[in-house]
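User: I'll paste a sequence; please echo it back and then give the predicted structure.

Assistant: Echoing your sequence first, then the prediction.
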Amino acid sequence: LHVVLLTRPFDGLDDIAVRDKPGMVLRIGKNELSLDAPETRDYFAAMGLRISRGEAESAFRHTGGWIMALHFQALHYAATGKIGRAPGTLGLIQRTFWKGMAEDLKNFLLRVAPLDRFNIGQADFLLGGRGKIPECVEEFLEGEDFVRLGYDAESGFYYLHSVILNFLRARIDRMLPAAREEIHRAAGDCCALFGDPVKAVSLYYRIPDYDRILSVNFMGCELEPEDGVSFRDMTLAVLAGASREAKGRYPVNALKHAFNLLDVGEYERFGSVCAEMGEIIGANDMPEDEKRRMLGELTLLSSFGEYNDIGKMAVLTRKAHELTGGRPSLISMNDAWTFGNASVLFMFHSKPGRLDDELADLEYGLPAYSDLTGGHGLGGDALMRAEAMFNRGEIDAAETEARSARRAALRRGQKCVDIGVMLLLGRIAIHRGDCDTLTQILESLAAISAEDPLRSNRKEADMARSFLMELLGRPDGATEWIKRKEADENAVMAQAAPFAMILRGGYLAAAGNESGWPEEWTGLMPSVIEAAMNVGSLMAVIYAHIIAACASLARNAGSEARCEISVAMSAAMPDRLYMPFVENYGIGPEKNGISQCLEKLGDSFNRADVGMIKKLAGEFEAGRNAVLSRMFPNRPYGLTAQEFNVARLAAQRLGNREVAEETGLCESTVKQYLHSAFGKMGVRKRTALAALLDETGTCWRERR
């Protein structure tokens, strides 16, 4: 890297190749984005206004140095010769921008304010569609006041400054209800007409006008409510508040909203809505062929109510195929077939000893579903087979099947399936010590997280990347929303919530430096099991008990840990699923938790299975260490930045208190990092640290 820009604290700077080049790491904070008092005086001068040092100090004090506020202070000063003392920037906007404005321009700005952007066609629509825009509005749009109004020539869209928008929206909120509703309804109609269904639904929801919401055509995956709006609450309100007449007039849209009930885990309500829609469609006087097609759409929707019983879903899918006679409008190719889940095995493996039957059911049902929907979910069956092979230790066969799944998924643009393939190939790469392949996969997942237009794909890529970073023992690489305790059904679809919650537990266990993490997981465990049981995810149950074993070991509760491992083994061994134990073999303070638990459980489980876990764990650890030695050469043994920093200082014979003073950490946190570093390095005393660090070739002595 040539230049690194930091906008918040970051403890991974040691991994960045520019760390020794002065001036190449730039930190951007408030001071870099605002003016100080002398610069405020210069800003006024650039606008042709001479002010004293005292006036500059006053302007700075009232604005904090932010440009937008200073802009309106300058306008106020030009008009009055005084620094404005109005309460905040909005008060200055009232005095300098709004007061004295032509009524036609005020009306126009209030009508476009609900939109985040607008073009000339939308402006004309909101002004009555007469094809003529008032002269004062034209002058405003053609002006060069870029502070208030931006224009993108390529797209033809205008953008009001966010501060202006806040001012206008605050005025709308203070209007009488009828006037406020009229503005939002017109803006919603505009968005629906000009191809922005998500914004249209949000605007209608504010009124609220549920019948109008049902009139909006949208793809199921498009509905991402604005900040502060609960997707669950909105979906429930629309289906409860819309009239039967509207549901009969827009049955497909009503079914799409019903589909969203599954995403938020409202299974009981989903069943009742399906029954209601069956009555409405049956009583509708639409032509018989249209009614038959709509009943086919409803049957397809009902099949998702049987999630995750693949056999029952397949029966209903085939019936839907017969009724619709063609591709249904309920499913879009962009809809997440995986429900945002990064593992098909997590989705569909539900009962111990039935994995082979479940694979056969998916192979039977998915082709009919893909044929019906034009390829939706293509590659999903091959991915589940590949995951089963991998978890059984059949690494080479798993890779071959995974690449077959990838070809099928990419052929029909099924990125959600491809993300699952990337996760599996990343796990295989770690097992083999293939750093190059893993690096490419991590970069691809990071690009999807940052750039993909679909929220479900972004979240799924976040989870896949976090899973891989946790496997490497690098929890600092997990996505931020998992670190911030947001890994639940509010962050992802209900079907993916167990996977996300397991990642939260994996992050806690891998970080291992939060003194209360075992208690947090113990408190979270019932919610994880409940979420897993709601969607039938046996894999989530297995992982939950393994993490619980790790938490027990952290509390020195060995008997509890053995109990948790026994439960997990009982769920996994009927299908020979070794990898959950292999990839977590080194849990616990001594990094041999599963090994100890299995040894003390004796003959409770098949010795061949236990031997296979041990063999695969040795291969995995060798591969992981090979990846870490190349990916993080400055931090041996998979140490995090804080662990390495504490370990190198301790190796220089500093006591815990001195290390705390050197790093700015509290002494108890130093002890936790040091304990974690000891476990990863396989030592118990400080005297062994220096020799091990020397063996790695790390220049640790020069970094104090």
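The chain has 37 helices and four strands. The two ends are 24 Å apart (CA to CA).
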